[in-house]
C-alpha cells in the first residue's frame, strides 16, 4: 500500500531558450521566436515568489489516498457544503457545484447552501431540493465581512442545520466561508470541517499587500481551526503553510477540482499510459490559420478589478489602432468594470472589434472558445484557473498574467507533462507584453512551423471525486 501522504518537494520549473528555436513571421514586423515569451517569468508578487524557496515549502503534503484507510467506505454520508453556486462566483462556483453533484453521484447526500447578492431581488433560476439559496451581503472581493452579513448567513446556516442535519462533514467551499466556521463549530461539534482554499484570500495574505494586523490574525486563526485544508493548487499549500505556520502542514493537502471538461477526444488518438504510469495523451489540431484570417480572442472573466479586464481593452487598442491587425475579442462575463470597458471601447473606436456578451452559460463560453485561437486571462490573483485547463484541453493558445496559479497550470498540466508550448506568461500589468504575446501566437498559428500538439488527457473527474470521498472518510 502507498503511504497516505507523500511529501512533495516544490521544484520551480524552468524553460531554457534555445538559439535554434524556430523563427516565425510576426504581425508586428520582423521575426518572433517561439521563446520570445517564455512560459516562466517569475511568479508575480515577490513575497509569493519567496515562498517557493523557503524551507517551509518542503513540508507541503500532496494527498495520495489509500483505500485501505477509508472508514466505512460504502456508507453514504451527509455533507453540508457552504459555497457559491452559478451564476454567482465565477470558476469557484462551477467547481463547487461539480463537487456537490459529484459527491451525490457517489451516493452521498449533499446539501449545498449558496449565497447570492442582497441587491438581487430574484432567487437564481437553478433550484432543487438540496440547493438552498441565501440572500446576503456576501464578501465577494473583500477580506473582511460586515457583522450584519455574517449574522444573516450564520443564522441561515444554523436554521438549515437544525432542519436538515446533523451532518457527517461540513465543507467550506471557498475561503470567504471561513468566517462562518466558529458559528458552524458550535452546532457541528467535533465533526470534521474541511476548508477549501482557492486562492482568493491566501494569495493576498502572503503578498505584499498591506493588511490590518488584527484582520490578518483573525483570518489565519480560521485556517488553523479547520480540521483539513484542501488546496486546489500546489502553490496554495505552500502559501497556507507559510502564512499559518508549520502546525497546519499535516492537515494541508493538494486535491484538484473534479472538473468535467466536455472535450471530444478521438478514441484512435489516445495512447496507452507508459511504464511511468503517465496519463494517456491525445493530439489536438490547433488548425493553421490563413494569413488574412481574423485573429479571434476570448476572455472569459468576471469584469472586476482583480481580473483586470481593462487591460484587455488597452491591449486591443494597441493591436488594432497601432499595429493595424485584424483582431476580434469576445468577452464572456459581467461585473462592475463593464461600464468603464464600454467607455474605452467607444473612445478607442473598437465597437466592431470587442464584443461584451455579458454573463453567459458555460456551454456558450466553450462554444466561443472553440472558434477562438487564443484565450486571455489577465487576473492578478488566481488559484488554479479552470479556464486555462479548458483552453489547453481544447488546444488553444494562452496569454495570461504570470500569477502562481496560471504558472502552475501552464507548466504542469498541458503538454505531455511539460510546459504548454503555445502558452505565454507576461508580468502582471504588462499590457505591452500581452500585446506582443498575442501577436506572437497569431504569427505562429499562420506559420509553416504550426503543427498539431499532444495534450495530456484531463484528470478524470470520477477519480478526483473518489479521492475526495476517501479524504473525507479519513476524518470520520
Characterize the structure shown.
- The chain has helices spanning 46-52, 90-105, 147-164, 181-188, 202-205, 213-225, 234-244, 309-322, 338-347, 362-371, 386-393, 404-412, 431-445, 461-474, and strands at 5-7, 23-25, 31-33, 61-63, 78-82, 109-117, 131-136, 169-172, 193-197, 228-231, 252-254, 281-284, 295-300, 327-332, 354-358, 374-377, 397-401, 423-426, 453-456.
- It is 33% helix and 18% strand.
- Helix 8 (309-322) packs parallel to helix 9 (338-347).
- The radius of gyration is 22 Å and the shape is globular.
- It is α/β, with parallel strands linked by helices and 476 residues long.
- It has 14 helices and 19 strands.
- The strands form 4 sheets. A 9-stranded mixed β-sheet has the order 1-4-11-10-9-8-5-6-7, sandwiched between helices. The protein has a 6-stranded parallel β-sheet with strand order 15-14-13-16-17-18, with helices on both faces.
- Strand 13, helix 8 (309-322) and strand 14 (327-332) form a beta-alpha-beta unit.
Chain-wise SSE layout:
Blueprint: E1 5-7, E2 23-25, E3 31-33, H1 46-52, E4 61-63, E5 78-82, H2 90-105, E6 109-117, E7 131-136, H3 147-164, E8 169-172, H4 181-188, E9 193-197, H5 202-205, H6 213-225, E10 228-231, H7 234-244, E11 252-254, E12 281-284, E13 295-300, H8 309-322, E14 327-332, H9 338-347, E15 354-358, H10 362-371, E16 374-377, H11 386-393, E17 397-401, H12 404-412, E18 423-426, H13 431-445, E19 453-456, H14 461-474
Parallel strand pairs: 4-11, 5-6, 5-8, 6-7, 8-9, 9-10, 10-11, 13-14, 13-16, 14-15, 16-17, 17-18
Antiparallel strand pairs: 1-4, 2-3, 12-19
Helix pairs in contact: 3-4, 8-9, 8-13
Amino acid at each position: 500500500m502507498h503511504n497516505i501522504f507523500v511529501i512533495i518537494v516544490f521544484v520551480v520549473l524552468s524553460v531554457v531558450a534555445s538559439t535554434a528555436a524556430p523563427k516565425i513571421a510576426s504581425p508586428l514586423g520582423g521575426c518572433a521566436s517561439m521563446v520570445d515569451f517564455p512560459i516562466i517569468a517569475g511568479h508575480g508578487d515577490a513575497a509569493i515568489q519567496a515562498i517557493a524557496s523557503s524551507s517551509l515549502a518542503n513540508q507541503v503534503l500532496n494527498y495520495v489516498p489509500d483505500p485501505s484507510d477509508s472508514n466505512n467506505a460504502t456508507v453514504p454520508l451527509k455533507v453540508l457544503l457552504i459555497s457559491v453556486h452559478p451564476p454567482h462566483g465565477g470558476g469557484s462556483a462551477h467547481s463547487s457545484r461539480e463537487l456537490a453533484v459529484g459527491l451525490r453521484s457517489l451516493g452521498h447526500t449533499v446539501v449545498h447552501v449558496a449565497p447570492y447578492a442582497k441587491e438581487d431581488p430574484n432567487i437564481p433560476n437553478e433550484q432543487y431540493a438540496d440547493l438552498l439559496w441565501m440572500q446576503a451581503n456576501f464578501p465577494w472581493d473583500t477580506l473582511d465581512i460586515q457583522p450584519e452579513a455574517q449574522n444573516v448567513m450564520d443564522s441561515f446556516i444554523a436554521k438549515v442545520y437544525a432542519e436538515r442535519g446533523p451532518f457527517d462533514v461540513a465543507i467550506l467551499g471557498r475561503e470567504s466561508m471561513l468566517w462562518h466556521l466558529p458559528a458552524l463549530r458550535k452546532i457541528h461539534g467535533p465533526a470534521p470541517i474541511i476548508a477549501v482554499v482557492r486562492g482568493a484570500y491566501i494569495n493576498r495574505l502572503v503578498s505584499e499587500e498591506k493588511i490590518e494586523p488584527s484582520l490578518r490574525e483573525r483570518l489565519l486563526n480560521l485556517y488553523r481551526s479547520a480540521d483539513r485544508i484542501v488546496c486546489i493548487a500546489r502553490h496554495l499549500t505552500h502559501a497556507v503553510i507559510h502564512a499559518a505556520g508549520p502546525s497546519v502542514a499535516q492537515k494541508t493537502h493538494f486535491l484538484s477540482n473534479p472538473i468535467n471538461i466536455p472535450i471530444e477526444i478521438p478514441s484512435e488518438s489516445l495512447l496507452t499510459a507508459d511504464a511511468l504510469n503517465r496519463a494517456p495523451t491525445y493530439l489536438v489540431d490547433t488548425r493553421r490559420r490563413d494569413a488574412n484570417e481574423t485573429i479571434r480572442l476570448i476572455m472569459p472573466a468576471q469584469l472586476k478589478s482583480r481580473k483586470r479586464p481593462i487591460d484587455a481593452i488597452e491591449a486591443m487598442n494597441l493591436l488594432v489602432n497601432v499595429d493595424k491587425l485584424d483582431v476580434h475579442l469576445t468577452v464572456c462575463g459581467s461585473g462592475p468594470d463593464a461600464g468603464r470597458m464600454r467607455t474605452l471601447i467607444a473612445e478607442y473606436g473598437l465597437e466592431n472589434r470587442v464584443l461584451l456578451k455579458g454573463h453567459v452559460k458555460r456551454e456558450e463560453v466553450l462554444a466561443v472558445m472553440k472558434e477562438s485561437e487564443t484565450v486571455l486571462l489577465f487576473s492578478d490573483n488566481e488559484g488554479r484557473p479552470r479556464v486555462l485547463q479548458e483552453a489547453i484541453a481544447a488546444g488553444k493558445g494562452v496569454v495570461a498574467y504570470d500569477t502562481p496559479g496560471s504558472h502552475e497550470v501552464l507548466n504542469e498540466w498541458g503538454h505531455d507533462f511539460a510546459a504548454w508550448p503555445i502558452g505565454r506568461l507576461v508580468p502582471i500589468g504588462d499590457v505591452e507584453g500581452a500585446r506582443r504575446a498575442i501577436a506572437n501566437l497569431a504569427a505562429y498559428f499562420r506559420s509553416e512551423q504550426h503543427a498539431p500538439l499532444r495534450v495530456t488527457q484531463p484528470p478524470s473527474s470520477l477519480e478526483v471525486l473518489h479521492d475526495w470521498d476517501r479524504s473525507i472518510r479519513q476524518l470520520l
